[in-house]
Design a protein that fits this description.
Layout: E1 6-17, E2 20-31, E3 34-40, E4 45-50, H1 53-65, E5 70-71, E6 80-81, H2 84-90, E7 94-97, E8 105-108, H3 124-136
Length: 140
């Protein structure tokens, strides 16, 4: 699928589990009205297509969750979620990081998360619940 797509992102990432970390690769592409995200490691390749990058990443993360893996990227953090405008106008490449205090800041969903912040990583549903809570508490 990626052969026909414009490559938007390609970098090494860390996949985090309770058993430790392993190196992987994240790739993102665009073709016509579809975005694709692929995460691979030495054993497996998981790829999904959606109408925006954030949703495609969420689908990939759901598959990785079955193996207990979380990609160490901002788009997989419990305090990061895109606005509707970011999804529609920017293809979901950027999202807000919702801090407990202050206003949200914009981050790239494929920006790496340092090992000291791996505690921010979450599974897809945990992320949705956490950001809904942060938004309702008036952050931003």
């Amino acid at each position: 699928m990626f052969r026909e797509m414009e490559i938007l992102h390609d970098s090494e990432i860390v996949l985090v589990s309770e058993d430790g970390c392993l190196l992987g690769r994240v790739e993102a592409g665009f073709s016509a009205a579809s975005y694709a995200v692929r995460i691979s490691d030495r054993d497996e390749v998981v790829e999904h297509v959606a109408w925006n990058l954030f949703e495609a990443l969420a689908k990939v993360r759901t598959d990785l969750q079955q193996a207990g893996l979380k990609p160490a990227v901002e788009g997989a953090c419990r305090d990061v979620y895109p606005s509707r405008m970011a999804l529609e106008m920017g293809g979901g490449r950027k999202a807000y990081r919702w801090p407990v205090t202050d206003r949200p800041v914009t981050v790239g969903i494929f920006d790496p998360v340092p090992s000291s912040e791996y505690g921010r990583l979450a599974y897809v549903e945990e992320q949705r619940v956490s950001v809904d809570r942060l938004r309702s508490e008036g952050s931003g």
